[in-house]
Amino acid sequence: MSGPNLTERITRELETRLIEGVWVPGERIPSERALALSLGVARSTVRAALQRLVARGLLKTRAASGVYVSDRLQTGLISPWRQLVSDHPELRPDMLEFRLMLEGTTAYLAAVRATDEDLARLAELVDGLVDAHERGDTVRESRLDGDFHTALANASHNAMLRHLQGSVVKMLHEHISLNNSGLFELREQASETILAHHLALWEAIRTRQPEAARRIMREHIGFVWRKLEPDAPAPIVP
Fold this sequence. Notes:
Layout: H1 3-19, H2 32-39, H3 43-55, E1 59-62, E2 66-69, H4 72-87, H5 92-113, H6 116-135, H7 138-156, H8 159-175, H9 183-206, H10 210-228
Antiparallel strand pairs: 1-2
Helix pairs in contact: 1-3, 2-3, 4-8, 5-7, 5-8, 5-9, 5-10, 6-7, 6-9, 7-8, 7-9, 9-10
């Protein structure tokens, strides 16, 4: 295979890696030389494929820096809702309800599909959460919390769940005021319980217990719901 057909094949291969989250938004992808070596093609073929993906907005170039993943895959799915939720606080319970369904399934699949690399990343994050909690560093603990949920989505090895989960969690964090009864305040008030949820969830995933992982995740989001939306009871999601 050569010429336009080869360029198309390499374009599709790189596109698949973007869809599957091999490289996340904002991440610098490997150099042309590294990609050419790993794909077994000439640098000119890789360059042509990258140019196609840049033209489609999936990648973006930075002068004297390299090629980076754009956020188009996420914003294309979620951008209309981002503004709606910002303008309509009453939509927050709907978002939490969606998280009950979405992240329960994500946790289930992570317990089934997590690779050794996924488990190592989750273990690293859990250690960080424990350390931040012991030090009383709520800012770092909140950041690691988000990273933990992202790592779970990656461990599900489902491209749609990964993109949706990342977008929805980001939208929720943007919507809640961190200076007024938001996530940081929640962390200060209930960090012991939240940490216990994460440790139990990690244990269920590490020991390959998918049903337990789904149940613990739903309990966790239900707890967050009761703290953030005390006047809107969390539903029972089948």
